[in-house]
């Protein structure tokens, strides 16, 4: 089966720097790599609420580039530094954009993420309807 690399225009810099694709489409399934809360110039956002909102916006950008929305997400995994400290803020930001009860979700606590200051990373699988 053919696969298509999905690279939103807004993410060309990170692709050039890090060497990975934001998403891969195989058939009607889109595999989205971990998204984090950074600015367009790749700076980590310090405020947890703003960082999580930016993370969800980055995920929306990738899904949109694949002609999907949050409604198409069937499975999501989130990775958290200091999970219990930030979970309420994380859930609030998630619930602002994600429909409830429409996807499988696993949360994993980790010691650190790719860059200092990152508090969460989320990856997902979406299926076009």
Give a concise summary:
This protein is an alpha+beta fold. It has helices at 12-18, 48-65, 83-97, and strands spanning 3-6, 23-26, 29-35, 73-81, 104-110, 120-127.
Describe the 3D structure.
This protein has 129 residues and is α+β, with helices and mostly antiparallel strands. A hairpin with a 2-residue loop joins strand 2 and strand 3. A six-stranded mixed β-sheet has the order 1-2-3-6-4-5, with helices on one face. It has helices at residues 12-18, 48-65, 83-97, and strands at residues 3-6, 23-26, 29-35, 73-81, 104-110, 120-127. The model has no long low-confidence stretch (mean pLDDT 94).
Low-pLDDT runs: none
Taking the sheet with the most strands, its summary is: 6 strands, mixed
Shape: globular
| Beta strand % | 25-35%
Number of DSSP strands?
A: 6
Number of separate helices: 3
Q: What is the element string, with H for helices and E for strands?
A: EHEEHEHEE
From the structure provided, what is the oligomeric state, counting identical versus distinct chains? single chain
Instruction: Compute the separation of the termini in Å.
Output: 18 Å
What Rg, in angstroms, do the CA atoms define?
14 Å
Report the average pLDDT across residues: 94
Structural class by helix and strand composition: alpha+beta
Order of strands, widest sheet = 1-2-3-6-4-5
> Approximately how much helix is present in the residues?
25-40%
